[in-house]
Amino acid sequence: MNDSALSRFLTRFQASLDDGSFVKLTLGRPAAPASPLRKLRIRPVTLHGEALCNVVSRFATRDETKNHPFPDALRLVREQLGPEFLSAHLFTTRETVQLELGDRPRLRILQQANAPAPQAHDRDRSRWVDAAAPYLRALEVTDARGKVRERMGDKFRQIERYIDLLASACRESTLAGSDKPLTLCDMGSGKGYLTFAAYDYFQRVEHRAASVTGVEAREDLASLCNRVAGECDFEGLRFVCSPIAEYPLPPLDILVALHACNTATDDALFAGMRAGAQILLAAPCCHKEARPQVDQQSHTSPAGPLADVLRHGLFAERHAEMATDALRALLLEREGYRVRVTEFVAAEHTAKNVMLIATRRESPLSAEGRADLDRRIAQLKAFYGIEHQRLEQLLLDRRELERAPAAADTLPPI
Ligand SMILES: C[S@@+](CC[C@H](N)C(=O)[O-])C[C@H]1O[C@@H](n2cnc3c(N)ncnc32)[C@H](O)[C@@H]1O
Q: Whole-model pTM?
C-alpha cells in the first residue's frame, strides 16, 4: 500500500475537520467484494452544540447511523481505509480529494469547491417556508401575489417556527445524514398547514423523499387537503379521515401532533412510540383530563403554600397543564426518548404555546434509570392528586399485554 497517498489523504481529512471546511467523506469499493458493509458516508453535524461526525454505514439491506467526536471519526477512517475499503472521496469547501488504494494507490486533488455542509447556522432559514408556495395560496395563508394575508400573519409565523423545530429535531436524531425516504404522520392535521409545510420542506429544502400522512377526524378537512395536495403534485402527501386512536399507524420516523385536543395528544404520542418513531413533536392543548383531579386535590388536601395558588381557577388551569405536560415528558423519557420542552409560538399569539420535542436515544435506558423515572412520575402525580393520565394508562396497559405470554409475540416493540 502506498502509505504516503493514504497519509496525505488522512492529513487533508483532519485539516478539513480542524478548519471547518469539511463537507462530506465517502468510503467505497469494499476490499472483500462479498463484504456486507458496502459504503460509509460521513458528514459533520452539530448535536446539543457539539460538533460531531455523522457516520452512516450502508449495508446491503439496511443503514446504521452513529455520531462520533472528530478524533474517533478520524480513527475510524484510518482503520477502515485499506482493510475494509479501497476508495475514498473527500469533499471540502476548497477541494475534492480522491484516494484509490490497491495495486496502484493514487491521490487526486481537484480544485473543485463544494457547497458547505448543511448545518443549522449556515442554512438560509428564510427559504424553509416559501411564502410564494402554491399550497399556502390554496390554503388561503397567502394571496394571489404570494403575500401573507393580514389575518394569517400569526399562522405563517407558526408554520415557520414549526419547520425550524422540526428541522433541528431531525438534525439531532439518527435520521440526520441518511438518504432514506422519511415517513411522517401528522395526527389531528386540521387544515393541513403544518403537514404541507413539512412535506414541502423535506422535498424542496432537504431534497429528501418523504411520505407524509395527515390524520384528521373531519372529513371536509381531509378532503380539502387531499384536493390541494393533488393540485400541487405533492405525490407523497395524503390525508386520511380517522380518529387518531383508530388509525393503524405503520412504522414511521416522525410523529407530529399539534393542538390535538385533550387526550388525543396522548393517543398520538402512544401510537408514535408504538410505531417506532425517532422523533415525536407534540403541542398539547385543552388539558381537560387533569384539571378536575387537581381541583379535587386542592379541596381535599391543599398542597401547602400552593393551596393559595390552586384555589384560583386560572392558576389551577395552568398548573394542570404544566403537570400534564411534565408527566408526558417523564413518560416519554421512561420509554427511551430525550425530551425538550420549548415555546412553539410566542405566548401573545396563542395560549397553546408549548411544544414537547422527543428524540429517541441511541441506546435504551438502564433499569435504574427507568426506576428513577417511575419514582419521579409517582411523586409528581401524588403532589397534584393526579390518579389518571391517559398516556401513562396506555403504556401500562401495553406493558400488561406484553407480560401476557400469548400476546408477547404479536406486539410490535415500543
Ligand atoms: C386545533 S386543530 C389543529 C390543526 C393542526 N394540527 C394545526 O396545529 O394547525 C385540531 C384538529 O385535530 C382534530 N382532532 C382532534 N381530536 C382528534 C382525534 N381524536 N382524531 C382525529 N382528529 C382529531 C380536529 O378535528 C382538528 O381539526
A: 0.71
User: Whose alpha carbon is nearest atom 27 of ligand 1?
Assistant: 190
187 is a domain residue: yes
Q: Which residues line ligand 1 (CB under 6 A)?
A: 188-190, 193-194, 215-218, 221, 243-244, 258-261, 264
150 and 85 both lie in a single domain = no
Cα 238 to middle of ligand 1, angstroms: 16
Q: Is residue 199 part of a domain?
A: yes
Task: Clarify whether residues 24 and 167 are in a common domain.
Answer: no
Give the distance (Å) from ligand 1 centre to CA of residue 323: 22
Q: Are 338 and 359 in contact (CB under 8 A)?
A: yes
pLDDT digits (tens, 9 = 90+) for 198-247: 999 998 888 888 999 999 999 999 999 999 999 999 999 999 999 998 99
Residue 216 CA to ligand 1 center (angstroms) comes to 6
Task: Give, using CA atoms, the residue closest to atom 26 of ligand 1.
Answer: 190
Residue 73 domain-assigned (yes or no): yes
Total structural domains within the chain: 2
Q: Which of 66, 82, 110 is the last residue of a domain?
A: 110
- What is the tens place of the pLDDT at every residue in 265-312? 999 999 999 999 999 999 988 888 988 888 888 777 766 788 888 889
Mutation choice for ligand 1 from 221, 259, 281, CB with most ligand atoms inside 8 A:
259
Distance CA 392, CA 110 (A): 57
Domain that holds residue 151: 120-408
CA torsion sign, 98 to 101 to 104 to 106? Answer: positive
Do 86 and 173 reside in the same domain of the chain? no
Query: Is beta strand 96-100 parallel, antiparallel or unpaired with respect to 237-241?
Result: unpaired
Amino acid at site 216? E
Same domain assignment for residues 74 and 187: no
For residues 252 and 183, the answer to whether their CB atoms sit within 8 Å is: yes
Cα 296 to Cα 254, 300, 393: the distances in Å are: 37, 6, 20
Residue 237 lies in a domain: yes
Boundary (domain end) residue, out of 90, 110, 130: 110
